[in-house]
Automatic annotation (TrEMBL):
<protein>
    <recommendedName>
        <fullName>M23ase beta-sheet core domain-containing protein</fullName>
    </recommendedName>
</protein>
<feature type="domain" description="M23ase beta-sheet core">
    <location>
        <begin position="153"/>
        <end position="228"/>
    </location>
</feature>
<keyword id="KW-0812">Transmembrane</keyword>
<keyword id="KW-0472">Membrane</keyword>
<feature type="region of interest" description="Disordered">
    <location>
        <begin position="253"/>
        <end position="279"/>
    </location>
</feature>
<dbReference type="Pfam" id="PF01551">
    <property type="entry name" value="Peptidase_M23"/>
</dbReference>
<dbReference type="GO" id="GO:0004222">
    <property type="term" value="F:metalloendopeptidase activity"/>
</dbReference>
<feature type="compositionally biased region" description="Polar residues">
    <location>
        <begin position="261"/>
        <end position="271"/>
    </location>
</feature>
<dbReference type="InterPro" id="IPR011055">
    <property type="entry name" value="Dup_hybrid_motif"/>
</dbReference>
<feature type="transmembrane region" description="Helical">
    <location>
        <begin position="12"/>
        <end position="43"/>
    </location>
</feature>
<keyword id="KW-1133">Transmembrane helix</keyword>
<dbReference type="InterPro" id="IPR050570">
    <property type="entry name" value="Cell_wall_metabolism_enzyme"/>
</dbReference>
<dbReference type="InterPro" id="IPR016047">
    <property type="entry name" value="M23ase_b-sheet_dom"/>
</dbReference>
């Protein structure tokens, strides 16, 4: 019951902010009401985050296929720190993956780039295992990059505002797959109108699902991937997973690549599939 209340923290913070902004009487009843609502909303968000911490008796990592082909770089992953993002929205073991090489971040110019400038944009994303689609959305636009200094300054308040709404504003276009045995996979920041499956569809490992995009809370085209133990991202717990992949030195690994590690799926190396972005 309390978790259903905590989900509304964004509305409480937004209401408090409105009270503070429209207040024209200085420090008074409306101002105190606004401050109180903001504090309560932030405490509700904190309670929700704490409730989504994984239990002590966690299951071992689930072995999955890497959900794309080609050479990618890992960011914000659980091999470097846990939680990799935050416990909120079941992101404890989430990972961000960007195609490499790509345009390098700049301080001042250009302020932003079109998503088509990045090799990740439009790349096919694959089912990591057999499953069924339980949630999907692909109507949000793919926005410009946020990789310059001005973009980074902009994306911080933008991300906060997005967090006040429903999770879809952070996830952007997304898919949730039921992999069975209480395990669900989340694909976020997908390309607009690129979904190749719909809710209720059965999928098989390696099946194309959608394309990588730059929707939602994203600085450049990339895939945000995570596992969780329930279909509701606002109440589920994050789950660990492992991949079979090959680093740039040709060594194969079982696990999750550390931050800033470039890798390819091990199946790419064994099948000999050419990669136009290989070093």
């Amino acid at each position: 019951m309390l978790r259903h209340v905590w989900k509304r923290h964004g509305l409480v913070v937004a209401a408090g902010t409105v009270c503070i902004v429209v207040n024209a009487q200085g420090i008074g009843p409306l101002w105190f009401t606004g401050v109180a609502l903001v504090i309560v909303g932030l405490l509700m968000r904190r309670a929700m985050t704490l409730a989504q911490r994984p239990p002590r008796d966690e299951a071992p990592p689930l072995a999955l296929d890497v959900p794309m082909n080609g050479r990618w770089m890992a960011h914000n992953g659980p091999a470097t720190k846990v939680p990799s993002h935050t416990h909120n929205l079941a992101q404890t073991y989430a990972i961000d993956l960007a195609r490499r090489p790509a345009p390098k971040p700049v301080w001042f110019w250009p302020l932003a780039r079109r998503p088509e400038a990045y090799p990740a944009f439009g790349e096919p994303l694959l089912a990591p295992a057999d499953g069924r689609v339980v949630a999907a959305g692909d109507g949000q636009r793919d926005h410009l990059s946020r990789s310059s200094l001005a973009g980074v300054i902009y994306v911080v308040p933008e991300g906060f505002v997005r967090s006040l709404g429903s999770p879809r504003h952070l996830l952007g276009n997304h898919l949730v797959l039921d992999l069975g045995d209480g395990t669900y996979a989340v694909f976020a920041h997908l390309r607009r109108r690129s979904l190749k499956v719909a809710v209720g569809d059965r999928v098989t490992a390696g099946q194309p699902l959608a394309e990588c995009g730059n929707s939602g809370n994203s600085t450049e085209p990339h895939l945000h991937f995570q596992l969780m133990d329930g279909p509701d991202i606002t109440s589920a717990h994050g789950l660990r997973f492992s991949w079979r992949y090959q680093d740039d030195d040709g060594r194969e690994h079982d696990g999750v690549p550390a931050d800033n590690t470039c890798f390819t799926p091990a199946r790419t190396a064994t099948t000999g599939r050419p990669d136009p972005y290989a070093p």
